[in-house]
């Protein structure tokens, strides 16, 4: 059946009140969007920050009375000229619509990331099967893509890897498919650890090759390679930890960093590592280094 969408352009201060009013008026879901190209790149742990200009969308049954809902919300907010718009949302097979947006991605010479419902376009290559899910990391974001390109370019045969902030497990799994011996996976989110284990199984990997840990459970064992695709703030705070997890002569790969943050991140690791020149994709940076 079709649905009705009510889009309201508002501010950070009124967003939660509008959400409550939409739900009280019968909305089956409420979505927040940036309404002024104001990215929030690094929220604090446990924070759910909103944009100064926020668009709130409520989804309603097509039989809903739009006049009553609009008037109720306008009166409750005491806004004489509420900036809103109703639109009819055509009913579709949303699962198939969602799947249309994901295609195989080539990451270097050997490695491809392929949705599991598609036949890999180059079966002779290394094909990592991955579906979008709750955990970050599908290869489409520049930070993940930069790391995958780098992994494809280095010799991983027999190496031990730590993927700190593993998300979906994409970097750890790619490392193993490219020849690494083991990949220890770490994340603060239990859902990410579950996603990593599921994705490793989907790619036919032995669970013993991708052990998963919360940060306070990580074994103090240094590995040949440490990857951390998270955010600049945590990367700076984690510098001593990630240095300790890297063997002398081992490699470090850091991403999730915007260009203006690169020097601060590198400065935090200079006591232990020698860095290569940064590699950029759009506004994002990948930093690689070798431990002295």
Kindly describe this structure.
- With 292 residues, the protein is an alpha/beta fold.
- The protein has 2 domains: 89 residues, Alpha-Beta Plaits, CATH 3.30.70; 150 residues, Rossmann fold.
- The protein contains 9 helices and 15 strands.
- Strands 8, 9, 10, 11, 12, 13, 14 and 15 form an 8-stranded mixed β-sheet that branches. Strands 2-3-1-4 form a 4-stranded antiparallel β-sheet, with helices on one face. A 3-stranded mixed β-sheet has the order 5-6-7.
- Helix 6 links the parallel strand 9 and strand 10.
- Helix 1 crosses helix 2 and helix 4 packs parallel to helix 5.
- The N and C termini lie far apart (62 Å).
- The mean pLDDT is 88.
Record keyword descriptors for this entry.
eight-stranded mixed β-sheet; 292 residues; 2 domains; alpha/beta; four-stranded antiparallel β-sheet; 30% strand; Rossmann fold
């Amino acid at each position: 059946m079709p649905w009705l969408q009510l889009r309201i352009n508002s501010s950070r201060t009124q967003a939660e009140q509008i959400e409550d009013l939409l739900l009280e008026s019968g909305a089956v879901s409420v979505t927040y969007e940036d309404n002024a190209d104001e990215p929030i790149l690094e929220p604090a742990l446990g924070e759910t920050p909103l944009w100064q200009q926020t668009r709130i969308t409520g989804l309603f049954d097509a039989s809903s009375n739009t006049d009553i809902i609009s008037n109720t919300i306008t009166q409750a907010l005491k806004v004489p000229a509420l900036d809103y718009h109703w639109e009819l949302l055509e009913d579709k097979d949303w699962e198939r619509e969602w799947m249309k947006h994901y295609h195989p991605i080539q990451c270097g010479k050997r490695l491809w990331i392929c949705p599991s419902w598609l036949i890999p376009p180059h079966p002779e290559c290394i094909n990592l099967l991955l579906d979008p899910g709750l955990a970050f990391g599908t290869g489409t974001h520049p930070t993940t893509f930069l790391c995958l390109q780098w992994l494809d370019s280095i010799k991983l045969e027999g190496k031990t890897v730590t993927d700190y902030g593993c998300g979906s497990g994409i970097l750890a799994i790619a490392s193993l498919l490219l020849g690494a011996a083991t990949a220890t996976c770490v994340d603060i989110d239990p859902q990410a650890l579950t996603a990593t284990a599921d994705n490793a199984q989907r790619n036919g990997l032995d669970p013993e090759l991708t052990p998963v840990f919360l940060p306070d459970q990580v074994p103090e064992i240094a590995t040949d390679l440490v990857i951390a695709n998270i955010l600049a703030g945590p990367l700076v705070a984690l510098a001593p930890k990630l240095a300790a997890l890297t063997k002398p002569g081992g490699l470090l790969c850091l991403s999730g960093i915007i260009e203006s943050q690169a020097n601060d991140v590198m400065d935090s690791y200079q006591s232990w590592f020698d860095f290569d020149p940064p590699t950029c994709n759009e506004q994002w940076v990948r930093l690689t280094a070798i431990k002295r």
